[in-house]
Amino acid sequence: MYEYHILSQLKKYAKADKSFHMPGHKARGDFKARFPIAPFDVTELSYTDNLLCPSGIIDKAQKEIASIIDAEQSFILTDGSSSGVLAMMYAASKHGTKILVPRSSHQSVWNACRLFNLEPVVVDGGMHEGVILPPSVEEIEKLIVNDVTIAGLVAVSPDYYGNIAPLKEYAEILKKHSKLLLVDGAHGAHLAYGLAGYAGEYADVWVDGAHKTLPSLTQGAILSVNNLSLLSEIKEGLFLFRTTSPSFPIMASVEYGVKYIKNNPALLDECLSAIGAFKAKCPFARYPSADPFKLAIDCKPLGISSRTVEKELEKKGIYAELSDGRYILFYLSPMTTAADLNKLLSAFTAVAGNKKIKKDYVERPELPPVQRTYSYLYSLNRKYSLVPLTEAEGQMCAGNVGVAPPCVPVVVAGEIITKEAVKILSESKHVYGLENGKIRVVAK
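The structure assignment produced for this chain is given below.
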C-alpha cells in the first residue's frame, strides 16, 4: 500500500499555529468554519517541502507517482493541465520552429504556439458522426518527412469524446524521423491503470489531468517525462509557468488520486463492470468512444436537442459534462458507481419518453476542411478589425474563437471564417474569443 505523504504531513500539522505565515485566513474564525480545508492550506514551511525544489515529502510523492504511472520522472501541477502543456511546448520550441497540431487541440496548445513562436502545422483528421477525429499516421508522416523545422507532434489522446489516437504508430514514425511525441492526455489519467491507449507507453512527454478522472481536486495534474534528454528544458518550462504559491490541498489530492486507485484496484474493476452493465441495458445510441469512461449519448435519433435534454436532466438533479446540440456527454471516473449509472439511465429514459418535450433537434453543421491563406503567427500579428460574427463569413480570422467546454477553437487565427463556423458559434452557449458578439478579422 502506498502512503499519502503530503496528506499525512498536512494532517499531522493541522493544529499548528498559522498566525505568522501565509495565507492570510490563518485557518481561523468564520473562514475556517466556511472552508473546513483551511488547516491544510499552508505555504512552504520546514514540514511541507517546496514544489519548485522538492527534497522531502513532495519529492517522495513525485517519485512514487512516476513509479505508479511508469514515467521516468513526474511533476505535480497545481495550475491545471494547461501549465503542463505550456511547459512541454516550451521544451519542444527548442527543437524546431513548427509543430504538428491536430485540429481538436485544446486552447492551451494554441496559446503555447503563440507564446513560443511555434508555427502550428494544423492536421485535420476529418470527422466521424459529428466529432473531430485524430489525424492519420500517414498524414503525420507525409508532413514531417521533408520538413526538418518541425519539432514533432502534440497529440490529443483521449479527447473529450473518448477518441484515442494511434499513439504507438505515431511514436514509431516520429522516432524514425527523430521528432518528438508530446501528448495532451488531460482526459486520460485513468488509463495508466492497465487500460488501452495510455500516453505514458509511447510519449516523450505527456500531461495527465488528475482532477478530470481521478479522485483529485480541480486544477490537480501531472507532467511526466520519459525522454530524459528533455528534462532540463521541461524543468525550465515548469519554473516559468507553475505558480510560486502552489495549493497544498491540490498537491496532496494529486498524490492521493494516483495512489488511491493503485491501492484499491478492485474499484476500477467494479466501475468498468458497472459501465458495461449500463451500456448493455442502455437502449440509446452513443458515440463509439474508445475510452470507456466517456459516455456520449446521441440525441439525434430522439429528435431532441441535447441542450434540451441537458435542461430536463438538471431538473432531476443530474448535471452532464457538456451538451453540443447532438451529444450529451457524461464524464465518468473510477469513483462512478452502479447506483449513479442506474440513476442516469432511469432519468434519461424518462426524459426521452416525455412526449411534452418539443422535438427541437437541428442538424449541426460539420466543420469543413481548413481554409488558410496566412500562417497562424503572421495573422496574429496583423492589424485587425472587429466585425459582427454574422457578417464575418469569408474573412480571415485574426484570433482563436471556440466553445468552452471543450475549449477547442472552431476558428483558428489565419483561417477563413466559414458559414458553418458562424452557425456553430452563433448557436453555442459559452463562446470564447468574441468581443460583444464581434470577431477579430485581419484588416483589409
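Interim note for the steering committee: The chain has 15 helices and 17 strands. The mean pLDDT is 96.
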